[in-house]
Amino acid sequence: MNKYTGVKIFKNRRVVIATMHAKEKVIAPLLEDEFNMKCLVPKGFNTDQFGTFSGEIERKSNPLETVRAKALAALSDCNETLVIASEGSFGPHPESPFVTGSEELVILIDIENNFEIIGRFFTEKTNFNHQKIEALFDLKEFTERIGFPEHGIIVKVRNKANSEIIHKDFKDFISLQSQVLEFLTGGNTISAETDMRAMNNPTRMLAIGLATKNLLININSLCPECNAPGFSIIEAMRGLRCQLCNLPTKGVKAYIFSCQKCAFTCERKKEGIPFQDPTFCDYCNP
């Protein structure tokens, strides 16, 4: 069996950060501090080709396939061997379909040593939202709810011919209000959405940073058998018992860890959470 040198293979390497939305602001400092990496952002790399939150380009694959494709495409444009990319998605909580949130995936791919390591962060704290705008009052209420202008807004205008135009990058409420008022007087159908592009959404940028920290934890997790980095979770075992009724829930009680190099696996209990909150119990809160 091969014995690896742990995380030394990532020390002092050059790494490409596959982004056009300034994600390097939260990713790069973490990589530099942990592994003394030199972070590079490819010029002219268009991540919108893999899908946009505003809907101009549909994301055709699931988040993991998308973030992997994004990372490998960035590598193909340069002469490097190490890349990191992230992808966000929004939907129901894995333990309760009535609770929505966002998940950030961050992937590290090392084609020199044949490693793929993933970090994740799920949170219910997201300002992902949308609203129909029929009056300026609707606009004011929506901007206050999402935290504009610190968080960006996207305005979609559909005319009587049913064609849609998307407007982005508003900097202040006065210019936004003036533009929307013009749209309203034109008899258009207007909707507003939170701009989920990272550089216009500090809430999402924070989640990307936390997903990167989870990636670093996974990189530093070494296989007990062969010492390879990336000894991480491949499966969640559900059935954590409810704190109120003691029945099994969809909550995670343990994880299966696996090494991608020697295939060693083991089960580890979830630490610090002996019971599930009754909020997520199908019996106590049907």
Helix and strand arrangement:
Blueprint: E1 14-17, H1 24-35, E2 38-40, H2 63-76, E3 82-93, E4 96-110, E5 115-123, E6 130-133, H3 136-146, E7 153-158, E8 164-167, H4 173-185, E9 189-194, H5 202-220, E10 232-238, E11 252-258, E12 265-269
Parallel strand pairs: 1-2, 1-3
Antiparallel strand pairs: 3-4, 4-5, 6-9, 7-8, 7-9, 10-11, 11-12
Helix pairs in contact: 1-5, 3-4
Give an overview of the whole structure.
This is DUF6671 domain-containing protein. The strands form three sheets. The chain has a five-stranded mixed beta sheet. The model has no long low-confidence stretch (mean pLDDT 93). Helix 1 (24-35) links the parallel strand 1 (14-17) and strand 2. 24% of the residues lie in helices and 29% in strands. With 286 residues, it is an alpha+beta fold. The chain has three domains: 6-126 and 201-224, Alpha-Beta Complex (Maf protein); 130-195; 231-286, no CATH class.
